[in-house]
Amino acid sequence: MMRALCYNGVNDLRVERVPYPKILDPKDAIVKVSLSSVCGSDLHLLDGYVPTMKPGDIIGHEFLGEVVEKGPEVRRLNRGDRVITVSVIGCGECWHCRHDQWSLCDNSNPQPDWTETAYGQCGAGIFGYSHAFGGYAGSHAEYIRVPYADHGCFAVPEGVSDEQAVFVSDAVPTGYMAADMANIRPGDIVAVWGCGGVGQMAIRAAWLLGAEQVIGIDRLPDRLRLAQIKAGAEPLDFTRVDIHDALMAMTGGRGPDVCIDAVGMEADDDAGSVQRLYDRTKQALRLETDRAMVLRQMIRACRKGGTLSIVGVYGGVIDKFPMGAAMNKGLTFRMGQQHGQAYVKRLFDHIAKGELDPSYLMTHPMALDDGPEGYRLFKHKADSCLRAVFRP
Amino acid sequence: MSARAGAGPAERYATILTGAALAFAGLRRGDPVGALVATAGGGLFLAGAAGVSLLERTGAGALAANLGQDAVGLLPVADEPVKVQANVTILAPAQTLFRFWRNFANHPKLFPHLERVEIEDARHSTWIARGPGGAEIRWRSEVDGEHEDALLSWHTLEGAELPHRGSVLFLPAPGERGTQVRLTLIYHPPGGAGGRAVARLFGASPERQAGEALRRLKRLTETGSLPTIEGQPHGSRGLRELVG
Q: Where is the Coenzyme Q-binding protein COQ10 START domain (chain B) (predicted)?
């Protein structure tokens, strides 16, 4: 038996003893987890906004560890390899995987009916991310089974530390993809909503991809400070300034050329704002599932003909979407779950060269037994928590 | 109107299926409402297994006969065949897919309720399936059209409980996307109210069956296996533990 952090109900996490994972398919590997990070998207699960969670589900999807067992068809990995695993599971063989659209994998979701019904087609499975996304056991455990291991596991090169590498599972490729999708041109000013782990990485990636200036938007002073010092953003506190006016002042009235949403469905506004009350009420009544404040702000602020790049997670439907503004301003929308497998090698290169250092995201290394406390700190952004990372 | 001592096989099967579905759905809810549904479902399942005709008991059968309407949904009588179709694109050559499909012995990998297919000769085969409760259902089938790597069609022979015909079409997809596969199944509802009930049940599920079969064909061809989470660890499921 091993220890694992399990979902038991809305905001109810427990460390339980569960059986060890087994190889279930010849393409599987078993990884002994040494670091496993919390992620903002977990909060949507814990808060009950993503249906299809079952009591007993092991959560966690951003992890580093050592390959301890592999199925007979695993060719590219060896026992003892220090690896990260991309959070999104790709079979490596379907048309989408072959075209580096790994999160659109046709084959990796064993329970495709929910998303097929709700979204029209099913997407990839994701570790520890509800049964709609496959129901795969997550990484907040001593061991985890990795399907399609040849495609999902990547050996960490020498010179890249565990603390840097673990975030190449999810936060780094997600942030990087946000900037990559935006097709940044010389002279472009990029504004990033949300300075959590993904937002910090999106800011850094925007610089690496040639942005002229990068603006980070949040309300938490510690996160804004890190965005400024570590990622090089101009910080904007939305509780202190009118974001629209500030962005216009910083862009000569044009608006940012690229707006990145690193927040998603649980967006927050000024505590007293009418819009916040509206969205929270409708969400509570399940009249809309996702709060869209960030999207509305981005559409209004974005430069005419500019690009919105969305990597903050949405699950269902949003309300009061300003389609007229988006259409008449000729905006381009890019979005998606990360296609991490397409980016890992490039990201390790950046890290090895010292151009990118995600290790500062790990503000709270903790024991797995402290999992519920880690999520409490992370959820309430207490004690300047950017990411709690468990050492099982 | 012919006298009936109990439920006919078709009606029995319908009752068993409905009962099992309700019982399962009820148990999955794991709350008092679910328990009620499950109990009702279990009752139906037993009635079906014991051959008790619910239609006769409720008089719905007689009413339906008088009104010329379906006993279960009170829909107008329609002896028209039920047609379902599913489509999928698979990153593989038509030849590979055609050969897999043409070997009917592979079909239990695509249709989970099929136990085995016995090949008799190039055109004839016997299909053996398990219904809920483990009841064996078998029928014979004949291939009536074959264009190599492109089209295959077949129909059931006399004596099948649920007569049907099917065809599968393989077309090259544009832009190196592989092969588009279209599976069409046409069911001929057997006579009698119970028979129509079976058809209705299959009317809801053949579509899923057809879609699921093509999904399995795609996954087996592209990756060599079906993705699974069966047997992975999890914590306590609470009340749900009883039904997995």
A: 92-215
Q: Say how many CB pairs under 8 Å bridge A and B.
A: 101
Instruction: Say if residue B197 is exposed, middle or buried (CB neighbours under 10 Å; 0-12, 13-18, 19+).
Output: buried
Domain coverage including residue B18: 9-58
Find which of A14, A54, A107 to mutate to test the B interface (most B CBs within 10 Å of its CB). Answer: A107
Pair A213, A234: CB distance under 8 Å: yes
From residue A301, how far is each of A173, A176, A248, A329 by CA, in Å? 26, 22, 8, 10
- Same domain? For B216 and B107 the reply is yes
Could you tell me if the ipTM is greater than 0.85? yes
Determine the average pLDDT of the residues in A132-148: 98
A172-335 folds as: Rossmann fold (3.40.50)
Name chain B contacts of A24, Cβ cutoff 8 Å.
228-232
Question: Which residue carries 């938490």 as its tokens?
Answer: A220
**Which CATH class, in words, describes the domain spanning A2-169+338-391?**
alpha beta
pLDDT in tens, B186-237: 987 666 555 555 554 444 467 788 999 999 999 999 999 999 999 999 999 9
Out of A6, A58, A109, closest to residue B227 by CB = A109
| A125-143 burial: b if 16+ Cβ within 10 Å, else e | bbbbbbbbbbbbbbbbbbb
